[in-house]
Write a structure and sequence with these properties.
Number of strands of chain B: 24
Number of domains of chain A: 1
Oligomer: heterodimer
Helix content of chain A: over 70%
Distance between the termini of chain A: 29 Å
Strand order of the largest sheet of chain A: 1-2
Largest sheet of chain A: 2 strands, antiparallel
Strand content of chain A: under 5%
CATH architecture of chain A: Orthogonal Bundle
Strand content of chain B: 25-35%
Structural class of chain A: mainly alpha
Structural class of chain B: alpha/beta
Number of strands of chain A: 2
CATH class of chain A: Mainly Alpha
Largest interface: A-B, 25 and 24 residues
Order of helices and strands of chain A: HHHHHHHEEHHHHHHH
Chain lengths: ~325, ~500
């Protein structure tokens, strides 16, 4: 115990984890608060629902966090989710035993290709990330609409059943989430690539001077973001038994909000997907709560914006002391 | 027995039309501390950057350990055993020391960074050379001196033979300099060779074995530090003939004080005080980076002062921001006209009118006739060569651009006008016109303060010169005392 306390006093620990800890603190308090008003909150059924609802956003938010670490941003991630969702459905062969493979593989490749395009435009051609991804989001969304003009299509039954199912009473996607979390975190914290990503975000000139291929690093970061969004899109195809070309429209902004709440900053190099996870759960719970209270989704949209600004303001207050 | 480890011969380097190095020979012996001295822009940094692979010489040869080599990239230079620590640190602030040390060269085990190996190697180097840094510290939280240590450890991990330090001491306090020198001595003991740029005379004598002086892109001489003294060094660094582009100085200077500053103190300023009398031009001299920019900015309201008084014609004024400065009729012609003085895309007339728009506007609308009169007057009195005042100011030559900046500032009818590097990047004819304008301004009763790193300019134009060193005024030179040698002495902190 004293070892843990000693660790917590260390400069490095505080710098890297203070944002994450604050996010989780807030999350726990929030859950206790909801629990007080809603008896059914802490039931297995409700918690499972939360996990199902949150999973796609977790994927997209992880991707967004990676982009933020490179001092970049990707507003098209929601549309990449939509596009891969549609690709999955369209290319799925519901009647064959392994028919889901083409759908899933194609969706994941789509996510990576979209990320590649974004990465090249931002990294190689040095175009402003905000404008590029904003524009590309309409392109990807347009392609999604072309593939699947109306929500529909059919999904491979076994596949859907698996992703919607449970293992020892816990949703399968929860394990999937843990696996993704561990892998992404390992890549970002323990591999040379992860360090390159943060170096490029923290001090582009220094990264370049050290010989890092900053362009390649940014491209890889955006490809990973695209891939993760595609995973979210594939899950949604299973969960909703169909494809929907506009399903991802609200995801990009919410992914940014989650990352910022989780301690990431727009200026790069700072951020942890663990914190992002807390951010996603907080946002999802707020949405849930508002739905239960019968508040319109337009107001929820407004609230999201306020939350982003509040998180940013708190973040910059932290920076004043630095 | 001195063994030559490096010999550069016949090095020429130009950037555009500017000759940075002309026929430079430079040699360095193994195991010595070789200091490069000379004014800003003399060529010291350039020759070292050629050695580090950042630039390629236009002509000349480099021999390393007796063999002819070609250095085209920084990587090649590193592979040959040369390492350079720059003034601009190449560290990522948000990461720890450990993460920075092996950036882009991390030892990997099963795809994951091998932290144990990194720590072991770093600790070995630190022990070998007597450096202590906390590997887990976040770099942006370290002091500049400590960050420099991290850079040094970083290069030592490659085990270089020749280590170049570009002005390592300019940002350090005395104690930190001592620590650095101890490490330098450790490095020499282990057989390394060190080349070192310094602007502080004491350092040359404290740590140097030999010193090479550069001036105007040429090597003046190389001497054993033990064989010379301060005077010899200064004499090597300066000593040029005065070109006759300066108008004769004003001799009718009254005792009336127009502008005065007392004990100005801030982050880079230490109790700066001086007064400007009617009719005179006060020069501010010294090596770059010793507080001159902060001083100019403080008086113009761009830099926060902790303490100090500013008095205009005896009355104390507070200059909190640029708006207050303009209101108090303080004008500044900044050192970088392209980014700080002009709106390059806007027409000449808009730039000229900018600071004084309110004077020609009534109820929010600018009077076209008044503005035309003002523009015509400006162009004429400053001899601005322009085809059409509606053309963007970017189309003008450097000298004329600078005149536009001046015209803009003169629009507020200033009582004090500060010039920061007034003739940088201007051709000789325009310089001459500028000097005449400055002299006339002083004669007409505007307090003129001119800060320049061009010593000839300072000597040629100023009635008195305040020389700065490390944020304080070493001395104010007058009349016959204004010589290159005296200015250089004061610029090194030595009073005359």
């Amino acid at each position: 115990m004293t070892k843990v306390l000693k660790l917590m006093k260390e400069e490095k620990f505080k710098y890297k984890y203070s944002g994450v800890i604050m996010a989780y603190l807030f999350l726990v308090l929030f859950m206790v608060f909801i629990g007080m008003f809603d008896d059914s909150f802490f039931t297995g059924r409700n918690l499972s629902n939360v996990i199902y609802t949150a999973f796609p956003l977790v994927m997209v938010s992880f991707g967004q966090t990676i982009c933020l670490l490179t001092h970049g941003i990707d507003i098209s991630l929601g549309m990449i989710l939509s596009l891969s969702n549609c690709v999955c459905i369209v290319l799925m062969k519901p009647d064959e035993p392994l028919g889901w493979v083409t759908g899933v593989a194609a969706a994941l490749v789509t996510g990576m290709v979209c990320g590649l395009i974004n990465g090249i435009l931002i990294g190689r051609f040095r175009l402003a990330a905000l404008i590029v991804t904003l524009s590309m989001s309409t392109v990807y969304g347009g392609i999604a609409l072309y593939l699947l003009p109306m929500p529909g299509g059919s999904i491979h039954k076994g596949f859907a059943k698996f992703l919607r199912g449970k293992l020892c009473g816990i949703p399968v996607v929860f394990f999937l989430l843990l696996i993704v979390l561990v892998i992404v975190r390992a890549v970002l914290n323990q591999t040379p690539l992860g360090r390159k990503i943060r170096a490029v975000g923290g001090n582009y000139a220094a990264a370049y001077a050290t010989g890092i291929d900053a362009v390649r690093t940014k491209i890889i970061a955006h490809m990973l973001a695209g891939l993760l969004s595609a995973v979210g899109g594939v899950f949604l195809a299973a969960y909703m038994y169909s494809g929907d070309p506009t399903i991802g429209s609200s995801y990009s902004l919410r992914a940014i909000a989650s990352s910022i709440i989780g301690g990431a900053v727009f200026s790069g190099a700072v951020g942890d997907v663990l914190g992002t996870l807390a951010g996603v759960v907080i946002l999802t719970l707020i949405n849930n709560m508002l739905n239960l209270l019968g508040i319109s989704s337009y107001f929820q949209f407004l609230l999201q914006g306020i939350i982003i600004i509040a998180a940013l303001a708190l973040g910059s207050l932290k920076n004043v002391n630095r | 027995m001195a063994e030559e480890i490096l010999r550069m011969s016949g090095i020429y380097k130009s950037f555009g039309g500017c000759k940075a190095l002309t026929d430079v020979d430079f040699a360095c012996n193994r195991g010595e501390v070789h200091v490069l001295a000379g004014e800003n822009g003399a060529g010291k940094s350039t020759i070292l950057k050629i050695l580090a692979g950042l630039f390629e010489a236009d002509r000349g040869e480099i021999c390393l350990k007796g063999e002819k080599v070609k250095i085209r990239t920084p990587r090649q230079s590193q592979d040959m055993g040369i390492a350079m620590v720059f003034q601009e640190l190449t560290l990522v602030g948000e990461m720890t020391v450990e993460e920075n040390l092996f950036l882009n060269m991390e030892p990997v085990r099963f795809g994951v960074v091998d932290r144990k190996k990194i720590r072991r190697q770093a600790e070995t180097v630190m022990e070998q050379y007597g450096i202590t840094i906390d590997l887990d510290a976040i770099v942006c939280r370290l002091t500049v001196a400590q960050q420099q240590m991290v850079e040094i450890i970083k290069i030592l991990l490659h085990d270089p033979e020749l280590i170049i330090l570009d002005e390592p001491t300019s940002a350090l306090a005395r104690k930190e300099v001592e620590k650095l020198f101890q490490i330098v001595r450790n490095l020499i003991e282990k057989g390394k060779t060190i080349i070192f740029i310094s602007h502080r005379l004491e350092e040359v004598f404290e740590i140097g074995d030999r010193v090479t002086v550069f001036k105007d892109g040429e090597r003046v001489d190389t001497k054993l530090v033990s064989e010379i003294d301060t005077d010899d060094l200064i004499r090597m660094m300066v000593g040029r003939s005065l070109q006759n582009i300066f108008p004769p100085k004003n001799t009718q200077i009254t005792e009336e004080v127009l502008f005065e500053v007392k004990e100005l103190t801030g982050k880079a300023l230490r109790q700066v005080s001086f007064a400007v009398k009617k009719g005179e031009i006060l020069g501010i001299a010294g090596l770059q980076g010793h507080g001159q920019t902060e001083l100019m900015n403080a008086i113009s309201g761009l830099y926060p002062l902790e303490k100090g008084e500013i008095r205009m014609k005896g009355r104390e004024i507070k200059v909190k921001n640029a708006k207050a400065a303009l209101k108090n009729k303080i004008a500044l012609v900044p050192s970088d006209r392209k980014t700080e003085g002009l709106m390059l895309g806007l027409p000449v007339r808009d730039n000229l009118a900018l600071c004084s728009l309110g004077r020609r506007a009534r109820m929010g609308v600018i009077s076209a006739s008044k503005e035309k009169a003002y523009i015509d007057h400006s162009v004429k009195s400053l001899s601005i060569k322009v085809f059409n005042v509606n053309n963007p100011v970017a189309s003008l030559s450097g000298g004329n651009q600078q005149k536009v900046v001046l015209g803009k500032e003169l629009g507020i009818d200033p009582d004090v006008i500060l010039f920061h590097e007034p003739t940088r990047g201007i051709d000789v004819e325009a310089k001459n016109e500028f000097y005449n304008i400055m002299k006339n301004l002083a004669k007409q009763g505007t307090a003129v303060i001119m800060c320049s790193s061009d010593m000839m300019e300072v000597i040629g134009m100023s009635n008195r010169v305040a020389v700065m060193y490390e944020g304080a005024v070493t001395q104010i030179l007058e009349g016959e005392d204004i010589t290159e040698e005296n200015i250089m002495r004061c610029a090194m902190g030595i009073s005359v």
